[in-house]
Amino acid sequence: MTDQTKTGAAAVSEPVPASADHKAFLDVRDLRVHFPTDDGLVKSVDGLSFQLEKGQTLGIVGESGSGKSVTSLAILGLHRLGARGKNVQMSGEIWLDGKELVGADPDEVRRLRGREMAMIFQDPLSAMHPYYTVGNQIVEAYRVHHDVPKKTARKRAVELLDRVGIPEPNKRVDSYPHEFSGGMRQRAMIAMALVNNPELLIADEPTTALDVTVQAQILDLIRDLQKEFGSAVIIITHDLGVVAEIADDILVMYGGRCVERGPVDRIFYEPQHPYTWGLLGSMPRIDREQTDRLIPVKGSPPSLINVPSGCAFNPRCPYADVPKGNITRTERPELREVGSRHFTACHMAQEDRTRIWNEEIVPKL
Ligand SMILES: Nc1ncnc2c1ncn2[C@@H]1O[C@H](COP(=O)(O)OP(=O)(O)OP(=O)(O)O)[C@@H](O)[C@H]1O
Ligand code: SF4
Ligand SMILES: [Mg+2]
């Protein structure tokens, strides 16, 4: 039996569409973002590919330091910011609506930012200016891309604040960010991000700092707005539970790479990668006692400077010793198609994965 038949599918280095000419609305191909540091080259993103169409939501999930934020900053052209970003090395392709951004003029990317793509950050205070009213900031964000009088832009700001659920938007438009509660600030930032009707919206841990009830409200809001505006949405989180209801597809990142990607139902009900199993086991469950809820994946994330050869999850993987034919530990698992639009990067044979999932993992979830 060949390695290929053992794993049940042909190896592909990346899940790009059958036709290299067909480009999804957002089409990221073999993206690498490396930062030279005194300690060595930090390979924050190391060969990431994915596609996203308009009207679809992709959840990017992974532990702290797996490269989620760097991926989104790179799409928006913000990865060079700060002293540490100056010497960044970036390669691959990012196609947005047919335009390639990695090789594009930074001014062109800046023009697209805010107009065609916008970002919601975890901490609105860091994204909003403390000395300007919320309304003024939305007005300015609008007028950068639209040649309209302030009055028109202000009307748009009030409409949007109303749309994102800010009470008395006519009055609150003149408030400063610190006069808003955390949830209201997050709503205001969503309004600011949406002011130019962006076709791609990236929300990086949009609810992490909020309490559970407000979290649910903000996720509902993002889902409603996505339906209304038909934009493509990326939601970044370390918690699979956050994207369970809202995402169409999920991409699981580990050590700067994608280890599993697929439609949300497949990731929840037929996940194929041991790290995804670990993430599912660490999800909060309302039907369990608090103490039983979180079973974090044991061990720590890999160093992105000295990424081990072979599977980066190997040191933490409970199934590293399951026999894998003549595949050696130093061989890096590439993404393989394991179902319709479902890819995973693990050397284990399909029958072993299916058996372990059904017999060992499911009973514990
Ligand atoms: N400008 C930079 N220079 C050097 N290393 C960087 C830089 N930006 C990010 N990194 C490193 O890249 C890795 C990935 O960072 P990133 O912020 O993308 O992680 P993340 O998955 O978003 O984590 P978190 O869940 O904590 O937000 C980290 O090890 C981080 O230290
Ligand atoms: S390739 Fe091996 S070490 Fe990596 S996830 Fe699969 S079983 Fe675990
Ligand atoms: Mg992050």
UniProtKB/TrEMBL annotation:
Keyword terms of this UniProt record: ATP-binding, Cell membrane, Membrane, Nucleotide-binding, Transport
Pfam family, one: oligo_HPY
UniProt entry tagged with the keyword Cell membrane: yes
Gene Ontology molecular function terms on file: ATP binding; ATP hydrolysis activity
InterPro entries: AAA+_ATPase, ABC_Ni/Peptide_Import, ABC_transporter-like_ATP-bd, ABC_transporter-like_CS, Oligopep_ABC_C, P-loop_NTPase
Occurrences of domain ABC transporter (ranges): 28-280
Record SMART domains: AAA
Cell location: Cell membrane
Membrane topology: Peripheral membrane protein
A GO cellular component annotation in the UniProt record: plasma membrane
Superkingdom as given in the UniProt entry: Bacteria
Signal peptide boundaries: none
GO BP annotations listed: peptide transport
KW ATP-binding (keyword) present: yes
NCBIfam families: oligo_HPY
Family statement: Belongs to the ABC transporter superfamily.
Alphabetized PANTHER family for the sequence: DIPEPTIDE TRANSPORT ATP-BINDING PROTEIN DPPD, OLIGOPEPTIDE TRANSPORT ATP-BINDING PROTEIN APPD
Protein name: Dipeptide/oligopeptide/nickel ABC transporter ATP-binding protein
Source organism (scientific name): Streptomyces ruber
